[in-house]
Amino acid sequence: MIKHKGQRVAIFLDVQNLYHSAKNLYNARVNFSNVVETAVGKRTLIRAFAYVIKTKTGEEKSFFEALTNLGIEIRVKDLQEFHGGLKKGDWDVGIAIDAVRMAPGVDVVVLVTGDGDFVPLVEFLKSRGKKVEVIAFERSASLKLKEAADEFVNLEEKTRRFLLVSPSRVQKGKKAVKKNNEET
Predict the structure, then answer these.
(1) Is residue 117 part of a domain?
(2) For FRET with 141, which of 21, 61, 123, 184 sits at 20 to 30 Å CA-CA?
(3) Number of domains the chain is built from
């Protein structure tokens, strides 16, 4: 797809979707700075939103601050806890409403999620003349969402760019390499 310098871009980051995909696929965290940079390219960023869930412990506060320091506006929702231990934190409707609201002021909507529930949103935005790009991990992204989008960016193609590996994982990796070297 052609990306013009003058295109106005809005980004909608489904943080829970990316967090769980990166954790389950790579046992790593997402480098949101590089994701946003890739989403914008040389175009004009109008607004970037991250949809996050707040827990009772508040341990995510520094992460929220890091997103804000990147120039990303955060939308916060409390984690819902139901009788029996079921927990839910879902932003699908909020993301869709914000994307529809922002659409008249942008040329491109970038959805950073693999959630197939967004296919109707993609179809709606495209029917209004908007270019819709999806950024996600291919193995955890909905095939229908990838097909509906004008462009799909697979985060798995450049994991070094899009993932943050914890120091403990790096240490484990160094130990494994050292052990292999000692055995050969």
Answers:
(1) yes
(2) 61
(3) 1
